[in-house]
Amino acid sequence: MVDIATRVYNHKWKIDPIVRSLIDTDFYKLLMCQSVFRNKPDTHVTFSLINRSTHIPLATLVDEGELREQMDHIRSLSLSRGESTWMRGNTFYGKRQMFRPDFMDWFENLSLPPYHLERKGDQYELTFEGAWPEVMLWEIPALAVLMELRSRAVLNDMGRFELQVLYARAMTRVWEKIEALRDIPNLSIADFGTRRRHSYLWQDWCVQAMREGLGENFTGTSNCLIAKNREVEAIGTNAHELPMVYSALANSDAELAKAPYEVLSDWHEEHDGNLRIILPDTYGTEGFLKNAPDWLAGWTGIRVDSGDPAAAAEIAIRWWRERGEDPTEKRVIFSDGLDVAKIAELQAQFDGRVKVSFGWGTLLTNDFRGFVPNDALAPFSLVCKAVSANGRPTVKLSDNPNKAMGPAKEIERYKAVFGVGAQDRQEVVV
């Protein structure tokens, strides 16, 4: 097992790349990239880094030169032979050759496109602009780099023993969470913590701990590199990015109303089984399900990623019943701001009513709360989102208005088109 504290201590003395592989990313990102490569390869998209936690002065904490060095290193990466073999030959979700030969040929020859970095006060403005399949692959590594550089900045003045104690405490916290999870019957849980992890080594350690501590109840990790190296399942389906871009490309309100379903129609052609998971909250869960075509009710399940998770699951259960489907045969994946108490609560509420799964993210892979002065290692909300497509702004409404993004005028337009009324504001934990 890697001595994480010693490795962290040695960061001070030599360059240590944070992202060392193009598959140090989430599985859903690669699945979406293949879909975009097939359906919208020429769409011009801009991604932008957004620090929702403005009290964290990233530009003060993180040296610009070091950030550029890490980003430039990522641009030098290409798919290794072993990584390519894993993607081409491995079985994902019970399917061989999940990634098509034409996509793999393209990916094997890809280097990530240029980035634009600018300091604005005590924050960084980081943007990626270009062909959608290329620029979308920046999101996860860019977030991982900034999160880890912030961690390194805080840890930089700690001595060897202090670091050993810090990581011992953090390991103990994770293990205590795992022990608590063991008491939850019929648990099905995966690691979803790549984007806002403390570090790569720490996420890798957490996955190993989950595997040993939970056995069969641990279903895999969203991180492709860790899945490959640790021989666990790569887990993931799709994200808000697809409906946000498809919607921005719509030429009328009528086309806009149909756009989220066109995303899933394209997905339906490519995937089946447990990859047919609806993400309904981009423009409000209730309205999305109310207006959904009947064939969508036949999909395997939904992922709940914003708002009140129990309320969203209840809406889905009612919807399945109304469409003649048996909710007990459907999967509900909870993935927003989870920790042990919430996992236990949701499992108790929905076990036996649906097939319950959890995608556990930031509070698995980045829970160092209370361990250092001023809580300087506490997780914070950093996102990298598609902000425009072919020159038009993207919009996300979410089931939590605190997660909404886009120009105010467009947000109001989207609310009208999708019939989104009053929403309850909830604190964005991570």
Computed CA radius of gyration, to the nearest angstrom:
21 Å
Helical segment count: 18
The CATH architecture name of one domain reads: Alpha-Beta Barrel
CATH topology-level fold name of one domain:
nicotinate phosphoribosyltransferase
Runs in which pLDDT lies below 50 for 5 or more consecutive residues are none
Strand order of the largest sheet: 7-6-11-10-9-8
What percent of residues adopt helix (DSSP H or I)?
A: 40-55%
Label the overall shape.
globular
- E-strand count: 13
How is the main sheet built?
6 strands, parallel
- CATH class identity of one domain: Alpha Beta
| Span between termini | 29 Å
Could you report the average pLDDT, rounded to the nearest whole number? Answer: 94
Range of strand content: 5-15%
Task: Write a structural description.
- The structure is a single chain.
- Among the domains are: 4-157, nicotinate phosphoribosyltransferase (Alpha-Beta Barrel), CATH 3.20.140.10; 237-365, Aldolase class I (TIM Barrel, Alpha-Beta Barrel).
- The protein is 44% helix and 14% strand.
- The chain has helices spanning 4-10, 27-39, 58-61, 64-75, 81-89, 101-108, 132-135, 139-155, 160-182, 200-214, 224-230, 241-248, 253-270, 285-290, 309-322, 340-350, 362-365, 408-418; strands at residues 44-51, 91-92, 95-96, 116-120, 123-131, 189-191, 218-221, 277-278, 301-304, 331-334, 355-360, 382-389, 392-393.
- It has a six-stranded parallel sheet. The protein has a five-stranded antiparallel sheet with strand order 4-5-1-12-13.
- The longest helix has 23 residues, at 160-182.
- The mean pLDDT is 94.
